[in-house]
Amino acid sequence: MKTKPFAAPYAVWMLLFTIVPIALVAAYSFTTADGALTLRNMANFLDPIYITVLLRSLGIALLCTLICLLVGYPAAYVLAQKDFDKKGVLVLLFVIPMWMNFLLRTYAWLTLLESNGLITSTVNRVIEFFGGQGNVRLLYNYGAVLMGMVYNYLPFMVLPLYTSLSRLDRRVVEAAEDLGANRSQVFLRVVFPLSVPGIFSGVTMVFMPAITTFVISRLLGGAQFKLFGDLIEQQFLFTGNWNFGSAMSLIMMVLLLLSMSIMNRYGDQEGGGIF
Amino acid sequence: MKSAGFFKRGYVYLVLAFLYMPILTLIVFSFNASKSRAVWGGFTLDWYRALFQNSEILNALYVTLAVALLAAVTATFIGTLGAIGMFSMKNGPKSLLLAAANLSMLTPDIVIGISLMILFLFANLPLGFGTMLLAHVSFNVPYVLFSVLPRLKQMNGSAYEAALDLGATHWQAIRKIVLPEIMPGILTGFILAFTLSLDDFVISFFTTSEVQNLSILVYSMARRGIHPTINALSTLMFVAIVALLLLVNRKSSILER
Amino acid sequence: MKKLLPLLLCACLLCAPFLSGCTPAANEKPSSITVFNWEDYINPEIFDLFEKETGIKVTYTRFTTNEEMYLRLDRGGVNYDVAFPSDYMIERLVKNDLLLPLDHEKLPEFKNTYAWLQTPDYDPESKYSVPYMWGTVGILYNTEMTDGEIDSWGAMWDAKYLRNVLMMDSVRDSLGITLCYLGFDLNTRDETQLAAAAEMLKEQKRSGVVLAYGVDEIKDKMVNNEAALGLVWSGDAITSIDLNEGLAFCVPKEGSNVWIDGMVIPRSSKNPEGALAFINFMMRPEIAAMNSEYIGYSTPNEAAMAILGAEYSENPIFNPPAEVIARCKFFHDVEDALETYNRIWEEVMNE
Fold first, then answer.
1. Which residues of C touch B73 (CB under 8 A)?
2. Environment class of residue C105 by beta-carbon count within 10 Å: exposed (0-12), middle (13-18) or buried (19+)?
3. What is the residue extent of each domain of chain C?
């Protein structure tokens, strides 16, 4: 087919609005405000306060991914079983929240968790019923931020796992059963190893947005648990050091690409996507 | 066996309950006559009325829809052409172009946002409707591309050759043979782009100044405190997303047949 | 393809207003202005009145802190016609040549401004700014969750109020009150004084008394009894007390900040004429009174104060008595110490 020229607008667009902007970020990272070349922005990042934020972000992202996996795996496993009826509807129900604005999802928790919100007031009433002091606070702590993240990203874990588990060759499972394996053996030796690619793509899809998240910690954590994304925003919109902000963005991208390539080595691309 | 099924089923419903409880609470409280967030004070549509009388919200809704529609149309156009063009390419240049799309999809939203902001200010473009639109087209294009490419791969290449042999022009062959074949992919790409754009906050946040879309408005309203009007707005946005997704699902299953 | 055509048409229709906005007819005045203001800091009815009278449409956009606003104006690419920075930020904006001088010929209503506010030291001739609102910074407290009257910043550090203090996510305000508490000048550039204040703020965070940092959200949280104490601007205190009678406000005895928010025209304004008309409109006594009544902040407009009457002029929060003002100081641009200020705030927030 002689359609090569058709790709021209695409090529130009990607060059102008993907490659050039990223190149600009890279250029800002290695220059001072006056445009002189420097490594200071990168060196500045080694400051303990930024490293702390980076580690905190990594920690909460890993914890969030782990919880999503632990909660999501059984759900995906059950959904993928043949005898589960109305499967289509239920899977769709897992898809819908993925398409909802994360601000609205986070905002929804804000309403539930504030002192006179439904959950907090119920919890406090229960405590009072048992004679305790009903002044529990559920908002503005590490737990609230973590919960907000798990809530936001759980569907991104369930779906790839479901795709991977439902593509699993039933005959292998049956063969294992015929050969005398019990249920836990079948799961541990057959099903689980075969679902590893799905686990990898689920982990990728949760970990990536989790590490770059911002705003959630401001809304649910009362701005007390700054994450990597908040740090970048802070540089661009408040402190005004764009060079340093760019350096942080670049560090974030390199980190992501690194973990992506590690994931890709173990997972496979067909493990399942969102589409 | 029966009881195990019950527990399994129960678990899935429990997870779904976790996912939907906050959304349902928002929806329920958007009809609550009392401003309180814990007490039911009777049914009302007042918050919806307030919503539709708020010119700022209506304006933001208009901006959101205009950007989403324009961005989706443009991205579908560029992405589809790109896919068709790439399809006839050798592996070298093709993988280069694919790498650009992959890079864009791997870049975190916040980095896309700030990098485009830097670009626009560098190019002296005033931040506003236009820049927001450019940004939205940019993050949409790869999604369209990746929806169309698989369809092209599935297409029977010889039908196109045959059309040319039978005297069709290059254009005719593309219009009559290729486009109908990849139409489901184009439509999926379009709706995907539209939904992504409708939903975007982070990238819009950095690439506009005085023109606000709904997400940006929700953000500033949510920071001020919780108000039932935002609940009403959330409910409507939720219903819109569900309707769109159902449409996609139905559309793609009809086209698949 | 046929299906896409109607979609394209729809899209064009949707965009028509924007496209027409880009190509103003030769002799037609651009009929809109964009206002860059704090969240919830104007009576929205005023926009309708202004549009009805002048035909100029107003778009309202918001910033959360002076620093954010400064950056937006400094980096360009924005289209704002009237902005509402505070005193010290006006100083900095003027220094960096980011404002247009005001044509006082077109601002006859300026005469309504209190004489002492016509010559503020950050802009002695009111060349670049006119005052919009003024007030103090203090503690808004919930009388049912605190015991007795509060009169010291020390309450914000009191372990008694564990997870009950709302601090402001704004460098100058939070650092300023800490400096006051320590008995230092709130514009200090002295490294050791600043380091001491930084340590206090970190200690406050470590001890767990702080429930959250915020700006726009503090009012709502206090009204809903979410916390015992909150750092607020006086105007927010008035609105909050109106909504929740259990709240009270004090300007602590150690001293505090008195501030003026001004109206300015950024250099990048595309419609300075419209901006001037808007600023003049805002200074009309009846408009200023109506605005002040709505947002709860003190008006610098003497004629408006007369309209508001004794209920307002005798309210010590709305119109602070001389002895309160005497212990308050204005913020000034700290120039080269700004980096230290930013650094401290980053350290506190990322602690």
1. 4, 7-8, 11
2. exposed
3. 31-134+259-318, 135-258+326-349
Residue B48: its pLDDT value, please? 95
CB B151 within 8 A of CB B185: yes
Contacts of C77 in chain B (CB under 8 A): 120-121, 124-127, 131, 209
Q: Which residue of A lies nearest to C338 if distances are taken between CA atoms? A: A239
Give, in order, the Cα–Cα distances in Å from B131 to each of A11, B77, C68: 19, 19, 20
The answer to whether the Cβ–Cβ distance between B121 and C10 falls below 8 Å is: no
Q: Which CATH class is domain B54-227+242-256?
A: mainly alpha
For residue B128, the chain C residues in CB contact (below 8 A) are 79
Which of the other chains make 3 or more beta carbon contacts under 8 angstroms with chain B? A, C
Residue B256, pLDDT above cutoff 60: no
Residue A1's pLDDT is: 55
Which carries the bigger pLDDT value, residue B165 or residue A99?
B165
Burial of B46 (0-12, 13-18, 19+ CB in 10 A): middle
Q: Give CA separation, B57 vs A94, A106, B235, C20, C42, in Å.
A: 29, 20, 14, 22, 17
Domain ranges in chain B? 54-227+242-256
Give the architecture (CATH level 2) of C135-258+326-349.
3-Layer(aba) Sandwich (3.40)
Tokens of B226: 């919780």
Categorize the per-residue pLDDT at B171 as very low, low, confident or very high, splitting at 50, 70 and 90: confident
Q: Which tens digits make up the pLDDT trace of C299-316?
A: 999 999 999 999 999 999
Q: How far is A218 from chain C (nearest CA, A)?
A: 8
Tokens representing A212 are: 């770059």
Cβ pair B118:A208 closer than 8 A:
no
CATH superfamily of C31-134+259-318: Periplasmic binding protein-like II (3.40.190.10)
Report d(CA C164, CA A114) in Å as an integer: 13
Q: What is the pLDDT of residue B254?
A: 56
Are C31-134+259-318 and C135-258+326-349 the same fold in CATH?
yes
Alpha carbon of C18: minimum distance to chain B alpha carbons (Å)? 8
List, for residues C97-156, the tens digit of each pLDDT value. 999 999 999 999 999 999 999 999 999 999 999 999 999 999 999 999 998 899 999 999
Domains and CATH numbers, chain A: 48-271 (1.10.3720.10)
pLDDT given at position B64: 93
**Interface contact A75-B199, CB threshold 8 A:** no
Neighbours of C39 (CB within 10 A): 17
Tell me if A240 and C212 make a contact (CB, 8 A cut-off): no
Q: Is A177 on the interface with B (CB under 8 A)?
A: no
Residue A214 has pLDDT above 60, yes or no: yes
- In Å, how far is C217's CA from the nearest CA of chain A? 10
Answer yes or no: do C77 and B121 touch at CB < 8 A. Answer: yes
Structure tokens belonging to residue B130: 């236009």
Total length of chain C: 351
B125 at the C interface (CB within 8 A)?
Answer: yes
Residue C28 pLDDT level (bands cut at 50, 70, 90): low
Report pLDDT for B255. Answer: 52
- Name the residue in chain C with its Cα closest to that of B62: C14
> Burial, A34: exposed, middle or buried (Cβ in 10 Å; 0-12, 13-18, 19+)?
exposed
Contact between B223 and C216 using a beta-carbon 8 Å cutoff: yes
Closest approach of B69 to chain C, Cα-based (Å) = 6
Q: Is the pLDDT of residue A273 over 50?
A: no
Most A CBs within 10 A among C73, C349, C351, hence the mutation to make, goes to C349
Question: Which of B26, B86, B242 lies nearest to residue A96, judging by beta carbons?
Answer: B242
For C213, which residue in chain B has the nearest alpha carbon?
A: B223
Instruction: Give me the count of residues in chain B.
Output: 257
Residue range A152-177, pLDDT digits in tens: 999 999 999 998 998 888 888 889 98
